[in-house]
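Class prep. Protein, please:
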Amino acid sequence: PMFVAFTLPVPIQSRTQDFKNVVDATPKGSGVLVGLQIESISTATEIKDFWIAMFTYLIRDRNLQLVFTAQGPAGATSAETILKSIDPDTKYGYKYGTDYVILPYLPGDEMAMAAIAQNFATAYATDNRGNPLSSLPIMQRFRGLADMSLSIVFFHIITYAEMFVRQWPVKYGVPTLVIGSFNVIATYYPKYVQGQIELTAQAYSEWELLVNIPGIELKKLNSMNVQALLQVGMIFIGLGVSAIEATKPKKVVQR
């Protein structure tokens, strides 16, 4: 499965399907606020193919305008790395500062989230590349979360879940999608959070399959499925051999 492309049946969880449905219902050209609570580069690197499938779909297929924010020290760097891999400027006619922007890490946890949502220009003086926000056309169109049509948040530290929900969808009523543990946002689903992707290879594979951008996550899932099928097959072969051996007459050893 790692070398020969094929896909075994993958059941799609309802919340993953909800995630895509909300993205598809967002009008093309709309603004999307992306919150990345990433503490280390390795967190994003481990699921880089999933991120590529996610943001490629938002850019190539939905033509959404993206404002990336960092709620963890590695959030902005991870966004830069992922966008460099996608290369939207060359491949999809996007322009940095006009169609997407990456804002730097803003410490302060929930206070920072509140400040970002209220007004980008007040929270930041420059973007992650040192450009004054006033010089970027995208920042003239979108001044805060109230101007956005959708927010997408990622967290792997569960205490950030309610911070995001309180400061973004509850406060502004903007449709919100979560990439993170469902257990900590279950009470907000589906009123404030309308779609969710779990932090598992299964869920990442579901997304790659749904948007038809197969990557390493789908290959890994197929490999695990093949392994499981082989294990089950060997068990039945072993049972069959045991059953055959049990029907054979036993030899009596005379001494």
Remarks:
- The two ends are 55 Å apart (CA to CA).
- The mean pLDDT is 87.
